[in-house]
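Re-run with default settings, no changes from the original entry. Doing this only to confirm the output is reproducible before filing.
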Amino acid sequence: MSKKRLIFPVVNALAMAAMFGVVGVYVWDIPLWALIGAVAGFLVGLLAEFGLKRAGAWLYRRRALLVVLLEVPLIIFAVGPYGYVLALTRPIQGAVCCAPATFGDRYETVSIPAADGETLAGWYVPPAENPGPVIMLLNGSASTRIGTTWHAVRLADAGYGVLMYDQRALGESTGSTQSLGWLDRRDIPYVVDFLAARPEVDASRIGAVGLSLGAHILIMAGPDEPRIAAFWLDGAGTNRVADFPPAKNFNEQFAGVINAAIENAAAVYLGMAPPPPFSELIPRLAPRPVLMIVAGADEFERRANERYAALLGENAEQWVLEGVPHVGGPNYRTDEYLSRMLAFFEQALAG
């Protein structure tokens, strides 16, 4: 074999190593993915160099173009989405410190048996009233219960019981993978079971706060969990491509195609069908009180929620926070946000 004949496979191996290495950046394993890319690129290069040589001079002279036409779609529509899903689903576990000081000695550390044999770790503060209302708090993606501290402290100070917990594969909860909320929705009935079994909890007055992905989980689980009496949903975006607002340009059309590939990769990786789109789930939260908080400064979130506005049922409304970024209400509109949250739960969980 002539050494010159190996130049093209080697060059292609280096190019593929670089492209696959980009995927490695997302999944925190650059060497492995670069190696995978190098091996795949070398094999494809060998096939092109020796296979196309036999196919004819015209094809052989255009082997670089043909390989690019093969590999670029592979990166965009297969390797990229799969790598992105791996990045989103990797566990982020470790000790969580510390419970808010304002809880004093009122709180207890709890472990909640959940779906699939997993255990959810959290902090629980009983309500001031006995039996009284309690609110479960769900953090955003790649976060822990600490991400709900602002809401938990203020709700507890107002006399509500609060449960802040780590979702599966986060913080001190068990689980081998995050799941875009697809698996977490199964845990919600177990969390409600835990609260409803507490003697100091009024099981008819269980509310929920969801932030970003936490809001997604509640929307996915809420229709089939009637024991949740009220939903404060801050930062809900889209769950499926079907929820995307109409594309304004080619870039948004292309983003829809890529996200469809990501959905398919997630379904394969998680071994389950995707949940229904929000457009089907949100109407099923009725007639319970729902308040959806929308970041006015986030154009995509705002446009997505414009579609949801027409789907909100009885006792539901949207609150668009003009000029506020994603889940930024507590930082940008502190007093108004707190006042409205407390008023919402006071009315929704009046008993």
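The chain has twelve helices and ten strands. The mean pLDDT is 90.
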